Amino acid sequence: MAMRSTLLPLLLGALALAALAGCADPSGNGLISEHMPSPLPPDAAIPVEYPAPAAGFGITAGAIIQNFSFQGFQDPELSTDLSTVQLADFYNPHLDDPSYMPLPGADDDRFYPPGSLYNAGAKTLQPKPRALLIDISSVWCGPCNQEAKDVLPGRYAMYKPCGGQFLFQLAQGPNSGTPATEQNLLAWTSAYKVNYPSSIDMLNQLSTLYGGQTFPDEVIIDTRTMAIVSVVTAVPDDEFWSTYEGQLTPGCLAH
Hints:
It is built from five helices and seven strands, in the order E-E-E-H-H-E-H-E-H-E-E-H. With 255 residues, it is of the alpha/beta class. It has a domain at 69-95 and 129-254: Glutaredoxin. A hairpin with a 4-residue loop joins strand 6 and strand 7 (227-232). It is globular, with a radius of gyration of 18 Å.
């Protein structure tokens, strides 16, 4: 398992932007030079049980999100070997099903399977989340960098024990409109000591969520159904985080 490489930190530059404003213009932040990664391998197969609504998938609140598949790091603190990260990894349909019993010899699908990098470093199997937050950012976006440095680490530490999971998506590199590369993602996760799944979307599968060049963007997904709970195209405010907290284990945050 490859350990995190030591990389030069991001040149944060001028990040004195409004805390609740989105970012629509380059802020001049620098990262290591662009190097396109090798071609994407074929997408992992969609599990049979992944929801397939008769009306089709969607990207608005209330719709079931498609099982998008990305390339990235399942836990960049433990391994920076590029691997597939798909939304089905977080699907947790039996979470609140009291009658559920795994078949004899089968894995309990409320937990990540043995050998999964989502279990790496843990002494016991890790439960799948109740709620998934997809955070979409870009290297050139000042508020995105500030969010990654000052907001997301503390939120993740608070929410993960209560059934929360983050999936970071780096959409663009140092220049507006330029797709992020593996090297950009490696530099970002190293600079901000990211310990949650992180990826790049070379196929722009999520581009309709951010409607142009506005970042950051946040999506809350109920992992029991893979239904989208909320979409925000700005730095999340207290109302957004309250909505996310409402998806977590009841009463957990009060402890």
